[in-house]
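Record type: ASSEMBLY
Status: queued
Input:
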Amino acid sequence: MKTRAAVAVQAGRPLEILDVDLEGPKAGEVMVEIKATGICHTDDFTLSGADPEGLFPAILGHEGAGIVVEVGAGVTSVRPGDHVIPLYTPECRECAACLSRKTNLCTAIRSTQGQGLMPDGTSRFSLDGQKLHHYMGCSTFSNFTVLPEIAVAKINPDAAFDKVCYIGCGVTTGVGAVINTAKVEIGATAIVFGLGGIGLNVIQGLRLAGADMIIGVDLNPAKQAWGERFGMTHFVNPSEVGGELVPYLVNLTKRGNDTFGGADYTFDCTGNTNVMRQALEASHRGWGKSVVIGVAGAGQEISTRPFQLVTGRTWMGTAFGGARGRTDVPKIVDWYMSGKIEIDPMITHLLRLEDINRGFELMRSGESIRSVVVY
Ligand code: NAD
Ligand code: 022
Ligand code: ZN
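Status: finished
Output:
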């Protein structure tokens, strides 16, 4: 069949809206009509050519929501008509990683997904007979896409596609980093570095977890109002701190008779390796946990003095907020539907597929929190 898609023809070039060919789902696969998709930084990282693992031509996009229209042989967990969110971190429930209960990084289809292919090693997308690569196992910048059954989460059919698509990446990453990875407890102190589409979701995750002090750090003064909107209690602009940022934050988090200070939990939501170091060093001696969420550029390294770790800080990282997609994503949709978490105000721009390149511009300029394309 034919489907309309935004095609990444070549690195560094705008996406092209084209009618492409899509084959039906094979065994263990499902075809989904994508109704809405968010635009996220990693799509731009790949499109720019900076991602050494980026493949072209490809159909990007990994933050979608839609309806199952057809299932391949042997598919039992979803059927046509089901509303689903595609998962760039699948959940097979059979691999050693899934069975370990210690990680969400399912390995069932990892190598083919990284090669832009379906698990059988082929692509369902083509254009004039030329293969188009899948992207992060999702390719949501296409009106119709084909996914492995283990890479779709069945969700509440009453949820609005143009809101819950954000749960396909940003919301789950931010909220999940707090709940699943850091396991923040009631009364904790926390610092969030970078108040973009991820950091604001960390903030609302912290509010949900019952944190007492939620400090937001951003160079952009416009982010103060955004942070406060979702539960931030204090804002720090590093360019307005007269002196070193880390000692300032450590002092700000000093409570009671504590002689040291530092936050119980810190989160990097910038992808900047210097900020990752600041986040670790602003966490509390003896028990502080610092979570790396931001994805740094290829080849970047982080550093700190080993003393920072020897004195009891833990440096950790998270992919997709530690969420097991098929199990946790439907729950997060329900949290949204019952008002436990907010999404609507973070969707700052709605676009047609024809205007998707404008969504990339809005993201690069920092003007948007999230742009969503509706089909
Ligand atoms: P964003 O651009 O919307 O937000 C980043 C924010 O950081 C901006 O507000 C910016 O002003 C601020 N900032 C930049 N430099 C700073 C500094 N030195 N100090 C303080 N603030 C600074 O980006 P986003 O959509 O929120 O994504 C953040 C990061 O999270 C990206 O690297 C993205 O790739 C990553 N991410 C990771 C996962 C995962 O699973 N680990 C998932 C999604 C996104
Ligand atoms: C999503 N991300 C950034 C912005 N939006 C993002 C990027 C990469 C990862 C997670 C989120 C990530 C962390 C660890 C891995 N990835 C490796 C997982 C593994 O090896 O099992 C990652 C993922 C998918 C892909 C590449 C890297 C891919 O499909 N190409 C989850
Ligand atoms: Zn993303």
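Annotation: The first helix runs from residue 41 to 48.
Annotation: The pocket of 022 (ligand 2) is lined by residues 40-42, 88-89, 105, 110, 113-114, 136-137, 169, 295, 319-320 (CB under 6 Å).
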